[in-house]
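Exercise 7.
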Amino acid sequence: MLKDLIIRKVVLSVHGVLALMLGLAFLYLGATMTNLLFEAVAVAIAIVLATAALILAAITDWFAAFSEGRKRVHRFVFYILAGVALAVTGVVLGYYPAVTMQWLLVLAAIHSLTFGISAFAFAMRPALQPIRPRCLYILGTLSILFSGVMASMATLDIGNPAAAATLGVYLCFVGAKMFFFAWNLDRAISHQEPLPATAHRRQFAG
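Solution. The predicted structure, written as tokens, is:
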């Protein structure tokens, strides 16, 4: 159980770093889109960065799958499939020439909606630990709101700078969310770690 929590914490932390760095990059690129030339270059860079982040996230999930081992088949399969989904999405973004910022908005909206629904589903499980259901309800609500905003913006001609800024804000939210989950798992790990031998001796001596 402890090993499983540590693996999940590492995966969440890596995903959080990638999401936060990508979000800050999108915010910066959105601010640099001052003319058509810079805008075209910034869109290309944004797509390359998104592709790289997705592939790195996929590699992280695959490492987690093999660290779990075959004794935990359900988690092994979950990490493998999650990695495949991330890698395929990254490859499609990298090789399909018609990808635009609006496409990225649509993908982000789907991602946000999926998490929002999942958060509500997990929050309704009474035995859910270590994250409190109230926190999941709040994060799920925010994710669904983000999904609606991004889906609406994707159908409008808002321009690449606004799309990049919106994606940047959402990705920073995702990064903060991953760090929050990793922090909760770290607390759970600290509660499950056995006391050192010296501590046991002190308990018996006392």
